[in-house]
Design goal:
Elements (H helix, E strand, L loop, with lengths): L1 H18 L12 E11 L5 E8 L18 E8 L2 H11 L3 E3 L5 E4 L1 H5 L3 H9 L8 E5 L4 H6 L8 H10 L8 H8 L7 E8 L7 E11 L2 E7 H10 L7 E5 L10 E18 L2 E18 L7 H30 L6 H8 L1 H7 L3 H4 L5 E11 L13
Parallel strand pairs: 1-4, 1-5, 5-6, 6-7, 12-13
Antiparallel strand pairs: 1-2, 2-3, 7-8, 8-9, 10-11, 11-12
């Protein structure tokens, strides 16, 4: 009996050893090309051009660096093909290491490519098992993805890390891959991304800036939001961190400009919908609190009447900007980037069942009203311009 148990134990050991045959398909770190960012453009000859920004470990500064000439931290390569996969295959033929997309934090659509449709690129993102769904999606504005990925950035050794950090700090509009794919496939909301452009071209200070958002309709780029309209859109999305507004409170004079600036502390947007005579109607209400950041007027906002006047002025200005943004999405872009369709789906599911297939066109005719209520909680220590008598 004991002999049988011993034989069975040895048989178990041999079977386990047979399974532990080693990592026969392993890939060493020094055999991989780590892609930090990639971009896709439509070339002048009609082909697709893919650009990769690859980290070079020997060029990344570290605490062990003792001197000598620093090596370039990234390699940027491009190739053309009939589609993205063919171009990617040609890029692999240029590289001694296997392309690895597991570290990619940024994907850029070239403006020309995006205006012609992004269905193929989205399909590739979905199919690639290495794609990170928490990487940021951007669209280039006034330039190509290739130029963006070749642009330097002084604060980070790898430029794409700078882009990721800029998108992660809430001071620019950002969208990650999973959210973008969800919007692209949805009938309730149109897709939108952050938009990146180059500045200070052909100078020693050439770099990039993310100060716009790119609007898509039926998976094609239709335009950009910037300035006050972008601020209004960010408010809808609850992305108001560090957001500031300035109004002309008094006529400018020699001793002061007559402006007041505030920074938002809290903001909450409520959207209500109703169906009237077979058509949806939308009401938007924004309530926000703010603090005064600059007062270049002779007005003392310690006085309640002056403070109420300022609150009313800011409420009217922000209401005008939000109304302008919505009007632009309806009349020019014809794209529901706010997601009003989603609210109608939630509140009126039976109506949405009939309207969802035509929502992209119906949205342009839907009346939208906006009401804004700004409360200023902190007026600061300086109440008026120091060179004039407060009133």
């Amino acid at each position: 009996m004991n002999l049988r148990r011993i034989s069975f134990s040895w048989l178990t050991v041999f079977l386990m050893l047979a399974l532990l045959t080693g990592c026969w398909d392993r890939t060493e770190m020094d055999e991989l090309a780590f892609i930090m960012a990639s971009g896709i453009d439509l070339a002048d000859d009609g082909q697709v051009e893919v650009t990769l920004q690859i980290a070079l470990p020997t060029g990344i500064p570290s605490s062990l660096t003792t001197g000598g000439k620093a090596k370039k931290p990234v390699l940027v390569v491009s190739a053309k093909g009939k589609d993205g996969m063919e171009a990617l295959g040609k890029l692999q033929q240029q590289l001694s290491r296997r392309i690895n997309l597991g570290h990619r934090g940024v994907f850029v659509f070239g403006e020309k490519y995006a205006r012609n449709g992004i269905v193929e690129a989205v399909d590739t993102l979905l199919r690639s098992p290495e794609s990170r769904f928490n990487s940021f999606i951007l669209t280039s504005s006034g330039t190509t993805a290739k130029e963006i990925l070749n642009s330097p950035y002084q604060l980070e050794s790898i430029p794409s890390i700078g882009i990721s950090n800029m998108q992660d700090n809430d001071f620019s509009f950002s969208v990650k891959t999973d959210k973008f794919i969800e919007m692209s496939a949805s009938l309730e909301v149109s897709a939108v991304t952050g938009a990146i452009r180059t500045i200070n071209k052909k100078t020693d200070n050439e770099t990039f800036m993310i100060d716009k958002s790119a609007v898509y309709r039926k998976n094609k780029l239709v335009g950009f939001l910037s300035g006050k309209e972008l601020k209004a859109f960010r408010l809808f999305k609850g992305n108001f961190n560090g957001m500031r507004f300035t109004v002309q409170m008094e006529p400018p004079k020699e001793s002061y400009k007559g402006t007041v600036a505030i920074q938002l502390l809290q903001a909450k947007t409520k959207i209500r919908t109703r169906i009237r005579n077979g058509m949806p109607e939308i009401a938007v209400a924004l309530k926000a609190t703010a603090q005064i950041m600059a007062n270049d007027t002779p007005t003392d906002f310690n006085k309640e009447t002056n403070l109420h006047s300022l609150e009313k002025k800011f409420s009217e200005e922000m209401q005008k900007e939000m109304t302008s943004m919505i009007s632009r999405t309806q009349n020019k872009f014809k794209a529901d980037i706010v997601g009003f369709g989603r609210e109608i789906h939630i509140e009126h599911p039976y109506f949405w069942k009939k309207a969802k297939s035509v929502w992209a066109d119906l949205y342009t005719k839907v009346p939208v009203s906006v009401k804004v209520d700004i409360t200023i909680e902190r007026i600061g220590r300086t109440q008026a311009h120091p060179n004039v008598q407060a009133k």
